[in-house]
Amino acid sequence: MAGDVRRLRRMLLECNSSDKLCVVREYQTEVIIIPVFLVGVFAILLGVILWLRYRSWRSKQQQLPRRQAVAPLPAKDKNQKEHSESENTYIQLSETTVESLLRSADLTLKELEIPRDRLIPGSLELIHNGSFGGIYRADLETGNPGKTKTVILKALQDTAGPSEVKDFLGRIKFHQSLGHHDNMVELIGCCVVQLPLYMILEDVSHGDLLNFLWTCRRDVMTMDGIPYDLTERQVYKVGQQVAAALEFLQQKKLIHGDVAARNVLIQSDFTAKLCGLGVAYETHTYGTSCVTQIVPLKWQAPERLLMKPPSIKADIWSFGILLYEMITLGAPPFPEVPPSDILQHLQRWKVMKRPSTCQPAMYGIMKSCWRWNAMDRPPPAELIKRLQTATKSSNDQVVLQVPELVVPELYADVAGVDLGSLSRDYTVL
């Protein structure tokens, strides 16, 4: 650099002051050659790049027919992958019309089909208008002359389109795939040859547990010959049965997703039947991100409120809320916390206080279900053992009593549930 400066200074001294082109002549070779050289290098690089792009384009054009021959499979989430092995046993998803879906269902659900003429005419009694259609109680011929039994019909309305029909048939098949368990509502059969479609289930005499608990608050011992009182020991026994149903679902690699008193049916002998499998079906069939059923916030585990994937341990958290519901005869959980603030409340490591009707042993089980870390909560099998142990020393003489009657409108507001959902006494899928 210093040498160039000295050279320039020498040339300037040699040049005549009137000869303005002197210095330019000295540098004219450098001024012309360097730009030409740079332009040449740029042209060569541009040519190489264009040539490489052309080769890549030709290669893609040659491979395109082969790629079109085998279309790539869409990606599935984890739940859908687990379900893919059994998907062939479900209703054919390629069907696009109601008629083709019913023809397919007539084959896949043939063993469940019950002739409609076995439903006694005029016996249908509307219980509740569900999301798909009416839920009815009806009389069904048993096959023995003159003998009938009461069943529940979950109907799909006549105006349903292909997507609704496909989903309804999938729910029937899902229920069939579960198999029998003493503490799950039993699927008796279906009517799927023509609309309206019916899912036929067993009738459970007392209806849902939540309404039963509210009735227990009244100053009655029996109603129509049915006992309406509850002891601590009976709470333990009902809890064991619900926990057994959760263990059954866990063995099937399923979650329930909405464990609550409103989703437990109760018989006169205090046999409990877990129902409300809508979240379980949608999670298993479509994946967690496609669940449409809304679960009230106060029953959800913290990880579910944080939008993390569901697990059986989230069901255990909800089971603790169920024990609280039973021991308080249907009180709403976290009564002092607005539903929208429940996550912030739990993040401060706060759980519900022990109710006055709850003994320390049961409260200890509840708190084990409400541990923040899901892995620290007991699995269903361990929960059953703890309930069985506590049952031995529980009180079977003193009837649980709560003097205040429940006002459904107030309960719905405090609990953060839909008021319309409280009027039904039978919920399945």
Automatic annotation (TrEMBL):
MF (Gene Ontology): ATP binding; non-membrane spanning protein tyrosine kinase activity; transmembrane receptor protein tyrosine kinase activity
Any one Gene Ontology cellular component term annotated for this protein: receptor complex
Pfam families xrefs: PK_Tyr_Ser-Thr
Region listing for Disordered, in residue ranges: 68-89
Basic and acidic residues bias: start-end ranges: 75-86
A biological process from GO: cell surface receptor protein tyrosine kinase signaling pathway
Membrane topology, from the record: Single-pass membrane protein
Transmembrane segments: 31-52
Cellular compartment(s): Membrane
This protein's UniProt keywords: ATP-binding, Kinase, Membrane, Nucleotide-binding, Transferase, Transmembrane, Transmembrane helix, Tyrosine-protein kinase
Enzyme nomenclature, EC number: 2.7.10.2
SUPFAM superfamilies assigned to the protein according to its UniProt record, in alphabetical order: Protein kinase-like (PK-like)
Name of this protein: Tyrosine-protein kinase STYK1
Source organism of this protein record: Chelydra serpentina
